[in-house]
Amino acid sequence: MDIRDFGSSLLDNLIKGNDFGIHTALTGIVNALTEYDPSYKFVPGIHPHEFSCGRRCYYSYHGYDRKVLSDPRAFVGKALHKAINMTLERALNRPEEKWIYKADYLINHLEICKTFEIRGEADGVFLIEGKPVAGMEIKTAGTIPSEPLPDHELQVGLYQYCLDVPYYFIFYINRDCTKKAVFMLKLKDRKRMIENRLVDMYFKIKSEVKPEKEKEFMRCSRCPYKETCDAED
């Protein structure tokens, strides 16, 4: 989709639904375009968006070459991220409340991270009096799911565990802004599962044998290691 067509579609739906704001949407589109950096360097490590596939984590941790496919839809997602986050920022009117957009973090205080680092960038974290109380992961999708997708649950679970926030929201929105859904995940319901997954991932990335693909989670067609992975099977 051409970014101009996307902008028109987005603005039309914003006017009808009044979900965000016209100025916010336009700013989101402009920022999405101006912030694109083709020289971005991927840092090897464990990343939440890879957490659903042991083999992908293995490739990432050991610094295998990545082949990132060019996808104009990335601009759509990035613009929507900006629009939603700017709207959330403007909605807060109490001084003790704060919304942090793109919360960068490097997790190394966890016991298991004495042997490897978990790197990530959460879409946003809501704080009250400086304490994180909730996070949000924004997903653009062609079809809105009736429940969180398994790989998204694992990604968000690791964010939640590392940031130690009790609640996390997965916000799904389609690319023309006509449909959306929000799901809430509680850390207390997921903490043990994430800890077990971290231990499992530790043994997978440290093994001399590459882990098996985890097809039930991964969308292999968009994986940057697809060519390497397919060649080894």
UniProtKB/TrEMBL annotation:
Top-rank lineage group of the source organism: Bacteria
InterPro entries assigned: PDDEXK-like_dom_sf
Name of the protein in its database record: Dna2/Cas4 domain-containing protein
Taxonomic source organism: Dictyoglomus turgidum
